[in-house]
Structure formats: C-alpha cells, structure tokens
C-alpha cells in the first residue's frame, strides 16, 4: 500500500504528464500543498524529493519548485559513421551546412553553441594501450562541448585523442580556433591522407562523477553512458580514441547491423 508521500507524488506526477502542470510552471508552496493534501510539510517534501529524483521537477534556490522543461534529446546511431565518411571529402560549403550533433538532434547549425579546447599531452598507460604505442607518446587532446542555444547544458562531454606526429603535417589540425571543422574528425584526418576503415565503440554505464552531474545538469540518480570510440584506418592503425560521456536522461542509442544474405 502506498504511503502518504507516494500518493502526493503520484497525483502531482499525473498532473505533469497530463499537461495540467506544464514545463516551467511553478508548483504551489510546500505549505499550500500540505494544506491541499491534508498532510504535514515534511511529507510533502518527501513527495517533491521523489519527483526531483525522477527529473520531473527542479528546485530553484529562493524561488520554489518548477516543472522541469524537457531537454532536447539525441538519437545516436552507428550509421552516423558512414554518413560522416560519405561527406568527409565534400566541398567545404556542403560540409558546413550540418554536422554530427545536428544529425543526432534534428537541430540546425545556428541553433548550437560550440566550444573546443586543445592541448598536447603524453599518453598514459590506458591511452598508450588503446593506441598500441609506448607510454609518453605525444598526443593531441581535444575537448568538445556542444549545446542547444536555448539550454545551458551540453549534449555530452567529449574528449578526443590524436597521435600528435600523425596529424602535425597540417598545422590547422593543431589549432583549436579552426573548430568547428566542417565535416568533423573524418574530414580532418582526410587532410593528412588518413582514411578510416572501421570504428569500434564500447559502451558501459555508471553513476556520474559530481563534476559530470553538475556540467550535464543531471537529475539526482541519473546514470551516464560511457562510450569509448576507437577509430582505425585502412592501414590497421588506431588513429583516434575518443571518450564520450552521455547523459542517460536525454540520450538514445540505436545500433543497426546489416546482415549479408545467404
């Protein structure tokens, strides 16, 4: 049998899902809700905490509780990699019209706010093993954040690693001010004669770190998907290793596997 706070939460939940309480609407004050449901304020607080944990409402400091606005979702499919390869050698005017985030979200280029930062690092044990190179090998670390202009949190947290000497032949690839690069990483690699043969993706799930939860603005209890993407060229070399942290409340992953006919 449901306890008191669960019955309060269920009624408010139904009102939100039915559209009686719309995104951005403020809920009545705790005292008003206690009076309405004929329960104590602590019981009402338990109900509100449950709704916050579900991501249905959010508490704004000094203002109260509000129905949480639905964030733009992203559908990430493995077919995106062939889509990126098909356009990697297109004229820059064609490549500049759209990108991977637009592909995943349905948004337009002008809807997005993009930030990139680069730095040169030495490969630690994990990255050295991923690339099959000695520890200490010079890498170019690239961090990317892309968000919808109407929202404050990025769609994901991306850190990409390239072998520094492998891409240094094109100085533009070492310059973060050249981002966003029309056509993305496959187009960048094409400028130094690298063609990808395959991409391996390993996905796990875990609770976010406090820093990840804050940057991604995750509701309490929301997990993240951790994607390790390894790009391998036609010479069987690992040329790009990317770690992508995806928020579990707005990311859907779809894997399509074409099967050869008998």
Count up the helices: 10
CATH architecture of the largest domain: 3-Layer(aba) Sandwich
* End-to-end distance: 55 Å
Oligomer: single chain
CATH class of the largest domain: Alpha Beta
What about the largest sheet? 6 strands, antiparallel
Sequence of secondary-structure elements: HHHEEEHHHEHEEHHEHEEE
Give an account of the 3D structure.
The protein is built from 10 helices and 10 strands. By secondary structure, the chain is an alpha+beta fold. A hairpin with a 3-residue loop joins strand 1 and strand 2. Helix 2 crosses helix 3. The radius of gyration is 23 Å and the shape is elongated. The model has no long low-confidence stretch (mean pLDDT 94).
Based on the model shown, name its key terms.
262 residues, alpha+beta, Arc Repressor Mutant, subunit A, Chorismate lyase, six-stranded antiparallel sheet, two-stranded antiparallel sheet, 10 helices
Compact description:
The chain is α+β, with helices and mostly antiparallel strands and 262 residues long. The protein has helices spanning 4-17, 30-37, 41-53, 80-87, 92-95, 100-105, 125-131, 164-167, 184-190, 210-216, and strands spanning 57-60, 64-67, 74-77, 112-122, 138-148, 157-163, 196-206, 224-233, 238-247, 251-254.
Write the layout of secondary structure elements.
Elements: H1 4-17, H2 30-37, H3 41-53, E1 57-60, E2 64-67, E3 74-77, H4 80-87, H5 92-95, H6 100-105, E4 112-122, H7 125-131, E5 138-148, E6 157-163, H8 164-167, H9 184-190, E7 196-206, H10 210-216, E8 224-233, E9 238-247, E10 251-254
Parallel strand pairs: 3-10
Antiparallel strand pairs: 1-2, 4-5, 5-6, 6-9, 7-8, 8-9
Helix pairs in contact: 1-3, 2-3
């Amino acid at each position: 049998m449901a306890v008191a706070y669960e019955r309060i939460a269920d009624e408010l939940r139904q009102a939100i899902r039915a559209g009686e309480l719309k995104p951005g609407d403020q809920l009545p004050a705790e005292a008003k809700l206690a009076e309405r449901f004929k329960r104590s304020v602590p019981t009402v607080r338990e109900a509100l905490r449950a709704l916050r944990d579900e991501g249905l409402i959010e508490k704004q400091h000094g203002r109260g509780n509000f129905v949480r606005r639905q964030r733009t979702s992203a559908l990430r499919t493995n077919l995106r990699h062939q889509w990126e390869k098909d356009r990697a050698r297109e004229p820059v005017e064609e490549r500049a019209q759209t990108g991977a985030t637009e592909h995943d979200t349905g948004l337009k280029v002008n809807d997005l706010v993009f930030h990139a930062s680069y730095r040169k690092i030495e490969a630690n044990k994990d990255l050295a093993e991923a690339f099959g190179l000695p520890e200490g090998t010079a890498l170019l670390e690239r961090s990317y954040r892309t968000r919808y202009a109407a929202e404050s949190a990025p769609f994901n947290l991306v850190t990409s690693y390239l072998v520094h000497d492998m891409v240094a032949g094109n100085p533009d690839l070492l310059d973060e001010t050249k981002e966003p690069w029309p056509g993305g990483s496959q187009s960048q690699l094409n400028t130094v004669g690298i063609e990808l043969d395959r991409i391996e993706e390993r996905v796990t799930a875990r609770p976010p770190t406090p820093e990840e939860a804050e940057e991604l603005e995750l509701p309490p209890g929301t997990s993240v998907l951790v994607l390790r993407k390894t790009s391998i060229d036609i010479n069987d070399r690992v040329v790009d290793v990317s770690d992508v942290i995806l928020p579990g409340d707005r990311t859907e992953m779809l894997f399509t596997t074409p099967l050869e006919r008998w």
